[in-house]
Amino acid sequence: MGWGAGVRTAALIMTWCDATSERDGRFDHGRRAGHDRAFGALSASLSDCFARSESRETFARMTRGMLMELEDVNCWSPAEAIGERGPHRQHHLLSRAVWDEQTVRERTAAWAVDLLDDGDGILIADETGDAKSSTDAVAAARQYSGSVGGEALCQVAVHLTFATAAGHCLIDWRLYFTKEWAGDEERRELTGVPDKLGFASKPQLAARMARAAHQQGISASFFLGDEVYGGRELRTACRELGLGYVVGVRSDRQVTTPAAKLSVTQMAARLPKRAWQRMRTGAGQKGVRDYDWAMIEVTADDTPPHTTATRGRPSCWSAGTATPAPCPTTAASPPGR
Fold first, then answer.
1. Helix/strand/coil for 312
2. pTM of this prediction?
C-alpha cells in the first residue's frame, strides 16, 4: 500500500508543477528553484509521518525520481534516475518500513488544494485501472477498465480530483474490490488486506471520499461524475454535503415531471428545439465536445431530510444529432438545495 501512496503523492506534486507552468508561462530555471523550495517545504511537513529519518529521506528521493520524465515508472527507473545502484532502499520503504501513508496523502492533498483553490473548486470522481499479470496482486481481478482498453485482469481504483481554473490535483483514492475478491479469505490473508477493507460499490467509494474531503475542510461547489456515479445514493450524499452535482444517468432512467413519468430519452425527445442551448464543454480525444442543454423540472428522488423536493435538471445530447446521442443524460442539482 505504501507504493500507492508514493505514486499518488508524486502525482499531486506533478499536477501542481504542471498547473503553475501552464498559468505562469515557460518552466524556467527560476521557477524550477521555486518548485524545489516548495518540494523541500512539503517534505519537511511530512517528517513526523516516518518512524526513521532514513525512510523519510528515501521517500523524498523516490518521489523526486518519480517526478522526472521517465518512460516507465517502477522501483528501478526512479532509483537509476537519482543515481542509486538499485531499488533496494525503495523496496524496503514500500514493503517493510513504518510510515503513515494516509497522513502523507492527506497533507499533500491539503497542500495542493491550498495552492489551487480559487473559491470555486469542483470535485471529480473517476476510476482507472492498472493491468496485472496475476490475481496475487491485491484486488486484481478480471474486470472492465477503460484505461486498459476493456475487460482485463487489472486493479481498479476510484479517484477523487479537486479542480479549479488554475489546475487540478488528486486528493484521494480507494482501491475497488470485486465481491468475489473481497470474499476470498485466503487471498486476503496472504496479501495482508485489513478486515475493514471489503466490497463497496464505486459510487459508495466516491461518497466516502467526498465526505472525507468535507471533513478535512476542502471546500467545493460541485461534484462531477460519469454514468457510474449517477445513482441516488451518491446524489443524496452530495446534497447532504451542500454540493451541487452534474452526473451522468442511464438513458432509460425514469423520472417524474409535473405532467408524466418518462424515461430521460423520451423526455428530451418531447422538447421543442427552442428549449435547447448549445454549449461547448471542452475538447477530448475525439475532438471538441458540444452539447445542447435544456432545463426540465422533475421531482427529486435524492432529497435529504428538510430539503426542497423539486428543482430543475438539465438534460443534454451531442450537438448535430436529431435524436439523443449515446452520451449519458446528465442530472444536475445546484449547490445547497
1. strand
2. 0.80
